[in-house]
Design brief:
Blueprint (H helix, E strand, L loop, with lengths): L2 H28 L14 H22 L10 H25 L7 H30 L6 E6 L3 H12 L5 E7 L21 H8 L3 E4 L6 H13 L3 E4 L11 E6 L2 E6 L6 H21 L1 H14 L5 E7 L5 E7 L34 H9 L6 H7 L3 E3 L6 H4 L15 E3 L1 H4 L7 H13 L3 H16 L6
Parallel strand pairs: 1-2, 1-3, 3-4, 9-10
Antiparallel strand pairs: 5-6, 7-8
Length: 470
């Protein structure tokens, strides 16, 4: 964390600690929670002011020692609260020792218990609010640290897709360096800045706040030579360990008495996890088809009234493991529009295998509405019920798209495609193809029921606001 940010956060904490302490005084002496206070034992707040000052200093020192003010990118609200609680507990212990053994004045023990609770609650709420504000502004490209990645292999790409999937981490990748000519090409929005020989020039030009080195272990001499160059430019340096090409998503790090241990986890969407995900797909898709059947009938009527042709559009797509299936959608284009794709190639607005046109001339009047609101995709619930798709997963690709995939793109075919996914709630058509693949791989590597639920909840506003949809 930058020094000025630390100072600002400590100043805010100092204020909030006193707010918590004042709330504790109110609860004990005015609200008289748990135990009434006799007039003889009533201690005026002025007597507690020196104590509040001591508590503030003690807790700030304790928080600093506990790492409250170190960078906690990726930490959950619970993690931050536990860190604050530990720091408050240590500081409160010191406070109790000082005031019970060194001061002759009699103070309420409940006052110290209340202050512990109120301070933790007030600071935890402040971190929750701060996290929400930071996530909001960082998603808009503000209050971010510039990041340079050295190495565009699997380790470097894993970092890139994490940045794409989690903008709340507060990173903006200025680009990457790699010595292999085949990797010296832009990946989505992330520019290739050349070979590592240009490191000094790139550091001087972009002034990154942080440099992450993701090079193989056999290049450790080169890595050591890079460290002083980065530090001389004021950049923080971090190194991604070379774990013998193991999939980083499957690596778990533990320790025994400080001795680091590395193990390999099972693939996340397999076994019982896969069975549970499939059970949820069946229940939700079945209920959805039943509840939405009146809407389906209305859409079918509108399609028939709007243009000649079938109600449904059926198209071959590629599913899990490269297996083809027929994807069902409401028809949003004129009949036979798929055959016109070759003639519209020059209008394609997507880089890579995907084909997208913002103002596609083949769309019908109702089709434009369906696309903007994603109503055309609802029949995919049939594919979900049949097991060909999932509620959440990578976008189902066309066979012609898969034929153009690079090797690393094919990893997205390891799971069933989804009606929604990280790609949809992170910009949809505004993303490049490589960024969509990065999001898909991040989802596969970090799958959990909580992540599925988060994506489904974020899908609703993304659809309602038509965020990047066309």
């Amino acid at each position: 964390m930058r020094p000025y940010r630390t100072v600002a956060l400590m100043a805010a904490d100092a204020l909030l600690i006193n707010v918590g302490f004042a709330a504790a005084y109110w609860a004990r002496y005015i609200g008289q929670w748990l135990r009434p206070v006799d007039e003889d034992n009533l201690v005026p707040f002025s007597e507690y002011i020196p104590i509040a000052a001591f508590v503030t200093i003690t807790l700030l020192v304790s928080y600093k020692a506990e790492g409250v003010y170190t960078s906690q990118r990726g930490a959950t609200c619970l993690d931050r609260t536990l860190t604050i609680f530990n720091g408050t507990l240590v500081g409160s212990a010191a406070m109790i020792v000082v005031f019970f053994f060194l001061r002759p004045y009699s103070y309420s023990r409940l006052m110290f218990a209340y202050s512990l609770g109120f301070i933790v609650v007030v600071l935890a709420i402040s971190r929750l609010v701060l996290g929400a504000v930071l996530a909001f502004v960082r998603r808009r490209g503000m209050a971010v640290d510039k990041l340079l990645i050295i190495g565009a292999g699997e380790r470097g790409r894993a970092l890139m897709r994490t940045v794409v999937a989690r903008p709340e981490l507060g990173y903006h990748i200025v680009g990457f360096l790699d010595d292999e000519p085949g990797r010296q090409v832009n990946i989505g929005r992330f520019p290739a800045l050349g070979s590592t020989a240009r490191l000094r020039e790139v550091l001087r030009e972009h002034k990154p706040d942080e440099v992450v080195i993701a090079l193989p272990a056999d290049r450790h001499r080169q890595v050591l030579a890079m460290l002083p160059e980065c530090e001389a430019c004021g950049s923080r340096v971090k190194i991604v360990p070379d774990l013998y090409e193991m999939s980083l998503s499957r690596v778990a790090v533990d320790d025994i008495n400080g001795i680091p241990l590395i193990s390999v986890r099972d693939v996340s969407i397999s076994g019982w996890n896969f069975a549970l995900k499939r059970a949820i797909d069946i229940v939700v898709s079945l209920v959805g088809l039943l509840l939405l059947s009146p809407l389906f009938a209305l859409i079918a009527i509108l399609i028939k009234l709007d243009s000649p042709g079938p109600v449904f559009f059926q198209q071959p797509r590629i599913g899990r493991g490269g297996k083809p299936f027929v994807c069902h959608k409401f028809r949003s284009m004129r009949d036979g529009a798929d055959a016109e794709r070759e003639t519209l190639t020059v209008l394609n607005e997507m880089k890579g295998p995907m084909f997208k046109i913002k103002n596609d001339p083949r769309l019908t009047r109702m089709g434009r509405l369906f696309r903007r609101t994603s109503l055309d995709e609802f029949p995919q619930l049939i594919n979900v019920l049949r097991g060909e798709m999932s509620l959440v997963g990578p976008r189902p690709p066309l066979p012609v798209e898969v034929a153009q995939y690079e090797e690393w793109h094919k990893k997205r075919l390891e799971v069933a495609p989804g009606m929604s996914g990280l790609w949809q709630v992170s910009g949809r058509s505004l993303l490049t193809f490589d960024e969509m693949v990065m999001l898909d791989l991040f989802y596969i590597e970090n799958w959990s029921l909580a992540l599925d639920l988060k994506i489904m909840l974020r899908t609703v506003p993304a659809v309602l606001l038509a965020d990047g949809a066309y």
